[in-house]
Design brief:
The chain is mostly beta strands. The protein is built from 1 helix and 8 strands. The chain folds into 2 domains: 48 residues, no CATH class; 77 residues, OB fold (Dihydrolipoamide Acetyltransferase, E2P) (Beta Barrel). It has a 5-stranded mixed beta barrel. It has a 3-stranded antiparallel β-sheet with strand order 2-1-3. A hairpin with a 5-residue loop joins strand 1 and strand 2. The mean pLDDT is 92. Zinc ion binds next to loops. The site of zinc ion has 8 residues, from loops.
């Protein structure tokens, strides 16, 4: 039996994000006052200290801002080498995710990527990214 995927901590502030993923939507928190985007979700806007937040649906397109390749220690259920990317979304915020479909030695800063949705369990969907050139 394979290891269970670790679950995120669901809070009042980030629930919309995980519910969005379940519907294959990448939702990003936006301040209703100054329209600043922020991820991960938080209760307060760091720009104007407003507490009124909404969510916008991101296109899922972006570029690799930075990345690391995890080799050790291998932690089930993740596959190794595991390419962890910090994606700069075209909307202007960044998101940590996993890159699939590109060998680690071919991953490059600035590479165009697009989101995919992975059904990890019956009730749990995660985002991951793939090279936009390979689509
Ligand atoms: Zn604000």
């Amino acid at each position: 039996m394979s290891a269970q995927h670790p679950r995120p901590g669901i809070t009042h502030d980030n629930r919309f994000f995980w519910e969005g993923l379940a519907q294959h939507k990448l939702l990003i928190q936006r301040c209703t006052s100054c329209h600043r985007l922020q991820h991960p979700p938080a209760p307060m806007c760091p720009g104007c200290h407003c507490f009124e937040m909404e969510a916008i649906e991101a296109s899922g397109r972006g570029t690799v801002h930075s990345f690391v390749v995890a080799h050790h220690p291998p932690i089930p259920p993740f596959e190794y080498p595991n390419v962890i990317v910090l994606v700069e979304l075209e909307e202007g915020t960044r998101l940590v995710s996993r890159l699939v479909g590109t060998p680690p030695d071919e991953v490059a800063i600035g590479m165009a990527v697009a989101v995919e949705f992975e059904q990890v369990a019956d009730d749990f969907v995660l985002h991951r990214f793939r090279s936009a050139a390979s689509r």
